[in-house]
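Title: Prediction job returns without error message
Component: structure pipeline
Severity: low
Priority: P3
Assignee: unassigned

Description:
Job completed but the reporter wants confirmation the result is attached to the right record. Sequence as submitted:
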Amino acid sequence: MHVNRNLVFSVSETGILNGEVTLVIENAITATVSPETFSVVTSIASNPADYSALISVFPNPARDLVQIKSPVEITSITVYDFSARVVYKSIHNSSADLGHLQTGLYVMQIITVNDGYAMKKISIVK
């Protein structure tokens, strides 16, 4: 017996998984072929994409203006001090003016249009 299968799936922007499964079973004794096609439509829970390896922040260390290079559109930037206080927040930007911050280490959270994210450690020096 030989089994051949074809799987085709796509995920919509709303997180709906659409796909088609084609299963072909060949019986070696009688050489019959039985193709069956099943449609699959289901909702899947997806984890937000971690773009930390793909998004770069420079210069780092920085004195004031920090640039962000991202392969996807940025929707928000939030910078936290190490007490978890928000010290900077911006929307739809690819740069952050951090000149008002004191020398120290900070964490930058970058959110993208597809609910992806990146976490970056930023060092401010004066």
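Comment from assignee: result matches the submitted record. The chain has two domains: 2-43, 56-124.
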